[in-house]
Description:
Structural class: alpha/beta
Number of helices: 14
Order of helices and strands: HHHHHEHEEHEHHEHEHHEEEHEEEEH
CATH architecture of the largest domain: 3-Layer(aba) Sandwich
Bound molecules: adenosine-5'-triphosphate, magnesium ion
Strand order of the largest sheet: 5-4-6-7-3-10-11-12-13
Number of domains: 2
Amino acid sequence: MSDDLEKIKGVGSSTASRLRAAGFTTVEALAVTPVREIISRAGLGEETAFKTCEEARRLMNFGFVKAADLWERRKNLLRCTTESKKLNEILGGGVETQAMTEFIGDYGVGKTQICMMLSVTAQLPREQGGLEGNVIYMDTEGTFIPERVYQIASKRGLDGQKILDGIIVARAYTSDHQCLLIDHLFKKCPEENAKLVVVDSMISHFRGEYIGREVLAERQQLLNQYLHKLLRLSEAYNLAVVITNQVQANPAQFYGNPERPTGGHVMAHACTHRIHMRRGKSGTRVAKVIDSPYLPESKASFIITEKGIEDSEKEAEEAEEAEGQSQNL
Ligand SMILES: Nc1ncnc2c1ncn2[C@@H]1O[C@H](COP(=O)(O)OP(=O)(O)OP(=O)(O)O)[C@@H](O)[C@H]1O
Ligand SMILES: [Mg+2]
């Protein structure tokens, strides 16, 4: 992380202070923000903004890179444990940094439980599967429950109070508010040493506020813009972004699963890994990777307990497998 804006060629103290006042406090933030946005938020002239952005990207080594260098960059990638071996396995070891992972599913399936669980495990040391950082938790539905997080932490032998101290909660009341908070993340994440950003749920305000076909395009455009901001955030600061999404019934579909994630193509394209969740046999939950650039399409079952997320018992898994085979899911 580099907060020395004056290091950027051509940026003096006055430009730097305008940039900082607009929330661009690091070279990383400038390198990943579209120039138009820098102009409108910091009030810089077009030429200065273009040059500043270009120099920031040069400092960050953005631009044409060899695949070998890209690989090198990806070696810094960290994975956050869910504490379910099976779920970790289908995620390639855990929830990744430099990526956005989306958990999709019906109400009560456990999306928020996973988010709260990760808010605990992200704070663990790396050798225990954590990200050794703090968490910024954007709650759009008022379902972040500190008592539950405390319970998960203490049942796992951790200091619940300390874990709660490591989670910064931002309650977003409207989609505008949510967007504003996401804009602040570029400043807040390095300040708070955040290694996990949760947005639970990404889309509910958008769906509730933009009603009707005439505003659909506008909604999707805004959603797209903010999803990409989150993705850039994850790359700029090597952190994990986890978002949740609901499903809606598709009455036109006769075969297969009629549930489909909300948010359409915009959501599907922006997210790195998409994980669908459903209820399984004997109270288990089944997670399935449905879209990912390199994770295979595979399933894992787990249970929700007072310790958060855990691997399910053998019998429950066998029942689930038998059910899956008979339904050919
Ligand atoms: N302390 C606990 N012990 C065991 N199970 C729990 C505990 N707390 C919550 N659960 C389980 O988690 C479920 C709620 O999951 P969660 O709130 O994560 O759903 P969600 O997918 O976020 O739904 P929504 O779309 O409504 O936000 C409950 O139905 C319950 O089965
Ligand atoms: Mg929820």
